[in-house]
Amino acid sequence: MSKGKDAKPHIGIFGRRNNGKSSLINAMAGQEIAIVSDFAGTTTDPVKKSMEIAGLGPVILIDTAGIDDVGELGQKRIAKTNEVLKTVDLALLLITSNSFGKEEINLISSFKNYAVPFLVIHNKSDLDVLDTALKIRIQNEFNAETIDFSALKPKNKEQIILAIQHLMPVTAYRSQSLIGDLISYGDTVLLITPIDIEAPEGRLILPQVQVIRDVLDNDGIAVVCKEREVDTYIRTMHPKPKLVVCDSQVFLKADASVPKDIPLTSFSIVLARNKGDFENYVKGTPKLAQLKDGDRVLILESCTHHVSCDDIGRMKIPRWLTNFSGKKLEYEVVSGLSKLPRDIHEYAIVIQCGGCVLTRKQVINRLKPAVDAGIAVTNYGMAISYVHGIYDRAIAPFLNKEQTATDYL
Length: 409
Prior knowledge:
By secondary structure, the chain is of the alpha/beta class. It is 34% helix and 17% strand.
């Protein structure tokens, strides 16, 4: 399940069957928005529900299937529940009747593996009050707070809200500037945006819009032109731009047109620094020069979209990389947060798109299996600049003055 264009904080509700996950969502939202039943296993696939939390704004609650589900279908439900872990910013673990066993311990281990902060809620306190010894154990062994609660009589709902406000990572609800640290008041940023077959009718693509907005938010001046007008504009532009950001597919044209004393990068690399695993991208990108015949390349798109005849991820990157390497490579493209078609160890390198519709946490967790396995990861813009021989220039704006790309190797 992807956040897609719901780039709001996501809170996952986890626990055994019939522990009251849906009832908790209803109690928090103050309305019956989730299916509630006395029968175990009512919730099958993860379901999203929206609500507002003071101090955080709009959030998405994700109701998941029970972690103790049984049978072949139950195992599929559990697998989908586990996939939710890669997308949430905070987890609520529901227990009842002071029951805390291997299912909960395994789930907490997964929370920690994906760096998901969590809160334990002992639900149905109207039937069984939380045992003090269990509360102390959870605190000591897992460094987690446990709140006694009744979804039927939610007298202390504010206590849960306060805990959520405290535990929610700031990065989940407060956007980080894309290029605000690179420009000052009144600086001009030139944005080179091709209008070709991949450009949507009547509008710009999301990364271009995001950068324009970020320039304005940081009191800069955004100037937008197509690649064919760059030469004319650069000759007459005064003062010269503080930064030039181009579409990755016109990197060569931009590199030739923009004087070397003006920093140049791409929309994809801007997003790579903001949302991606930039340090591992810098380490992994040079691995493109070490590919061998038969190597398999995994290309990850963050969204699903209409595929054009010259799609950058499916067509252009494979063509450029094949020409650059001179090797017979195999390419596989996976959209959204879909399950990979094969084990991560079967890939030689992973190329992730900018991730404009994902959060940083989703991108990091998407790349985590590759990073953990020691497989090189890179980004669309960084890979394109590398095979075109302008990699060092393209990432230079985001390195400290004393750093070079080789410092990461």
